[in-house]
Prior knowledge:
Blueprint: E1 2-6, H1 10-21, E2 25-29, E3 47-48, H2 50-53, H3 59-75, E4 85-88, H4 94-103, E5 108-111, H5 112-118, E6 128-132, E7 136-137, H6 140-153, E8 157-159, H7 166-170, E9 177-180, E10 194-204, E11 214-216, E12 223-227, E13 232-236, H8 250-263, E14 271-282, E15 289-293, E16 296-300, H9 306-323, E17 336-338
Parallel strand pairs: 1-2, 1-9, 2-8, 4-11, 9-16, 15-17
Antiparallel strand pairs: 3-7, 4-6, 5-6, 10-13, 10-14, 11-12, 12-13, 15-16
Helix pairs in contact: 1-6, 1-9, 3-9
Bound molecules: flavin-adenine dinucleotide.
Amino acid sequence: MRIEIxxxxxxxxxxxxxxxxxxxxxxxxSQSKGPDDSCCSWWxxxxxxxxxxxxxxxxxxxxxGVESMEFWSRFSSGHYIQRGTLVVAPARDLxxxxxxxxRTENWKKVSAEEISELEPALAGRFQSGLFYPSExxxxxxxxxxxxxxxxxxxxxxxxYNRSLEDADLQTPTEADFRxxxxxxxxxxxxxxxxxxxxxxxxxxxxxxxLNRPIRLLHPRIPLYVVxxxxxxxxxxxxxxxxxxxxxxxxxxxxELLSAAYALHPGFGEAEILEIGVDARPAFxxxxxxxxxxxxxxxxxxxxxxxxxxxxxxxxxxxxxxxQGYPSVREDRKSLxxxxxxxxxxxxxxxx
Length: 351
Ligand SMILES: Cc1cc2nc3c(=O)[nH]c(=O)nc-3n(C[C@H](O)[C@H](O)[C@H](O)COP(=O)(O)OP(=O)(O)OC[C@H]3O[C@@H](n4cnc5c(N)ncnc54)[C@H](O)[C@@H]3O)c2cc1C
């Protein structure tokens, strides 16, 4: 089958990988110049945290996340780091830690001593925490590149620097299916899609070493710090109901940096490398959707779970195309909408 994929963010590349592995003839068309900062996927933290995310997400997201981890461990060997996640809170916010634990699973409580064994840099800083040993993380920018390398080896065709305009999108594709993975840019066709602004900071510190993502529960910004190579840390991320994709506010950056300072005062001496902003594509229920309109299939709405869940959502898209809606797993059908009055949630009345 000939499959045309629009967009080269994590969703487009994951779909391409799944279809290429099934032996289809895949072409990716993207206005990006390659894996670059023009897509939301560039700015992500790269946490694969299906159990922590259950604190605020539907159980289905956790299931899709666990399924996707198998894909990532295969595709990103050398980049995929499975050392778990540590969740801590300042002494005054310990009730928040208990609440976090009640809403999630697959964790063990860790004492101050165990925290210092896991993360010597945090020795003496927190009385207790929650450790999620099965979670993983990676550097999303390296992953986008690794996926592209894999796809080129599979003879996937790339048409970068090509923006499909309205007229192109309305012209039926010559491929058997067009999979539209344009993220927030597909708002015109998917009017329920909204942006949730996320700001992040990249810093570098030679003083502090962390082995895994740390989440600091904080009343206003639940902060996370994800370690990358060469003393670089990603500090994220704000969640603001706003579609603005380029302007970071002083308040947000102050809050992110002061929360990092609360995690470890040594971050006060770190160098700021980058401040990044983008808007996560999200539907009203914050769940992904696969929306079929004839030979076009929109895969969108990954919200804060693009890396966490895109591979499983891509596999579901392949099931829909290859086997048809009736064969799709019953508990996944709610993610799929067909045409106007869909069988799934009617997220996209105008398609
Ligand atoms: C600060 C921040 C931190 C995050 N952290 C995490 C995290 O730790 N874990 C996680 O799982 N998720 C995280 N996310 C969410 C994740 O980044 C998104 O869910 C994901 O990037 C959405 O991917 P996408 O492929 O749908 O969209 P995008 O990455 O935006 O890709 C869209 C693609 O479509 C192309 N395109 C657009 N219009 C056209 C056109 N007209 N013609 C051709 N091509 C077009 C673009 O060039 C781009 O290549 C984070 C997000 C933010 C902002």
